[in-house]
Amino acid sequence: MKILWFAHRDIKNPKAGGAERTIYEVGTRLSKLNIEIHLVTVNPGNLLEYENVDGIITHRIKGNIKTHLSVRKMIKEINPDVIIDDMGHAVPWFSTWFTDKKVIVFFRHLHARSLPGQVNFFLANIITFVEKLYPFIYKNSIFVTESDTSENDLINLGIKKDKIVRIPPGVDLDLFHRGKKTDDVQLVYFGGLRKYKRPEYAITVYENLYKKIDNLKLIIVGNGSLLNEIKDKIKDKSYNIAFTGRVDYYNLAKIIRESWVNLHFSVTEGWGYSIMESSASGTPTVAFSVPGVVNTINNDYNGFLVNSIDEFTDKIVDIIKNEDKFTVNSRKFAENFTWEKTAELWYKLLYSSLLHK
After folding, report:
1. Distance between CA 142 and CA 144 in Å, rounded?
2. Cα-flanking dihedrals φ and ψ of residue 218, to 5°?
3. Which of 7, 158, 224, 354 could bridge to 135 as Cys pair (CB 3.0-4.6 Å)?
4. CA 110 to CA 239: how far, in whole Å?
5. What is the C-alpha to C-alpha distance for residues 341 and 56, in angstroms, rounded to an integer?
6. Bridge-based pairing state of the strands 142-145 and 56-62
7. Residue 323 contacts by C-beta under 8 Å, 6 or more apart in sequence?
8. Is residue 57 within 8 Å of residue 39, measured between CB atoms?
9. Are 22 and 171 spatial neighbours (Cβ–Cβ below 8 Å)?
């Protein structure tokens, strides 16, 4: 079988995150099952135009617009059996307009929730309108999504339930594993420093706790538009807060497993990837109860879901007092999710798509 996968980024993109991790983990496993995977994506400018990345044949085209305009050409050139239109970004690929081949839509999350503060009002309205057109653009397609909240979003957009398939992502249980915690309490925030993820709240949480917990440390991992703004907030303070920037996966795993609590403030997610990586490391998470995230935390088991910033303080203290229990339970929770299971579900869906053309 030959698969053509359209996505805005690949795993080597400097801005790669959870969405790109799924493409990589699933794609590499499918390639070992005699499936030819072609990934067409945007070249940020510093990557090879053509490259085999661990079994994923990657075609990179410079410029978002040019990549979208190349859809018809790439379909004709590669001649796939099945096409995957990955909605890591809201703008659809419109593959169904250029082929009668089976097209599967990978719906991550409803972008309308995360747009305020990221793009201007005019653009936000256009993207929100485009999302509402998905049922018409992909009227005969199967939609794959990861969480039940995203499934409900699709139903509210007008997608029939029998056209939706849930495939949760996995987590690397070997890389992310339990280890010794720091002697003094260490909190971690890791992820994009962008508006909808609200990373500035990490400073608020630290300020609410640092006088209550001796030698409290906060590590903020990641880059983004809010980095300098957050640094400016504490430049005259004698806080024990470290900014690492973006780190490689191995150093990230070390920081997470050594930390006592992971902090998560996002407005919405397709799936709590970072929460799963934290759980696998034996590090519980306190997070806002928002779409996507609610699927990755069981209250009082691998962390807590809260509804206000003030609740973070009490829940973090609860975890610190019962660290051993939360460490064990967090790992147990993560062990329910493996990339092998995720790839197997994709494999079955792809072959089912061929049988029901």
Report:
1. 7
2. -125, 130
3. 158
4. 37
5. 19
6. unpaired
7. 181, 260
8. yes
9. no
Q: Hey, is 41 helix, strand or coil?
A: strand
266-274: average pLDDT: 87
In tens, the pLDDT along 152-185 reads: 889 988 999 999 999 999 999 999 999 999 999 9
Q: Which candidate, 76, 42, 78, 37, places its Cα nearest to that of 54?
A: 37
Three-state DSSP at 163 gives helix
Angstrom CA distances, 86 to 1, 7, 119, 155, stand at: 19, 5, 21, 18
Burial class for 357, CB neighbours closer than 10 Å (0-12, 13-18, 19+): exposed
Sole residue written with tokens 């519980």: 284
Distance of alpha carbon 27 from the chain centroid: 16
Burial of 263 (0-12, 13-18, 19+ CB in 10 A): buried
Contact 263, 242 (CB under 8 A): no
Residue 58's DSSP bridge partners are 39, 51
Q: What is the mean pLDDT of residues 278-295?
A: 95
**Mind listing the pLDDT tens digit for each residue in 251-262?**
999 999 999 999
Show the tokens assigned to 61: 């085209």
pLDDT band at 241 (very low <50, low <70, confident <90, very high): very high
The two structure tokens encoding residue 101: 């081949």
Per-residue pLDDT tens over the stretch 308-345:
999 999 999 999 999 999 999 999 999 999 999 999 99
Vertex 186, ends 182 and 188: CA angle to 5°?
A: 125
CA 129 remoteness from chain centre: 23
